[in-house]
Specification:
CATH superfamily: YlxR-like
Structural class: alpha+beta
CATH topology: Hypothetical Cytosolic Protein, Chain: A
Distance between the termini: 35 Å
Strand order of the largest sheet: 4-3-5
Number of domains: 1
Low-confidence stretches: none
Largest sheet: 3 strands, antiparallel
Shape: globular
Number of strands: 5
Radius of gyration: 13 Å
Helix content: 25-40%
CATH class: Alpha Beta
Mean pLDDT: 92
Strand content: 15-25%
Number of helices: 3
């Protein structure tokens, strides 16, 4: 039997590759909302972050999350995402 390939994704904060299930997906829905996708299967444009707040803060400071999703993210959305990340993490 062949081994099952593990999908890798790159964290937008630290730019390191990890298995997909070890990362949190930040999603831009077709309606334009920015949410955390804990299942990793919702429709929309996604970007991945490590499960620590330091990577989130790096991505916020460098605006790499905004570039990945193709939209500018207001500060109140960042605050909501950070609270959700802390509760998941």
């Amino acid at each position: 039997m062949t081994e099952k390939k593990i999908p890798l994704r790159r964290c937008t904060g630290c730019n390191e590759s990890f298995p997909k299930k070890d990362l949190i997906r930040v999603l831009k829905t077709p309606e334009g909302d920015i949410i955390l996708d804990s299942t990793g299967r919702k429709n929309g444009r996604g970007a991945y972050l490590c499960k620590n707040v330091e990577c989130f803060n790096k991505a916020r400071k460098s605006k790499s999350l905004e570039r990945s999703l193709g939209v500018s993210i207001p500060n109140d959305i960042y605050e909501e995402l950070q609270k959700e990340m802390i509760s998941l993490g």
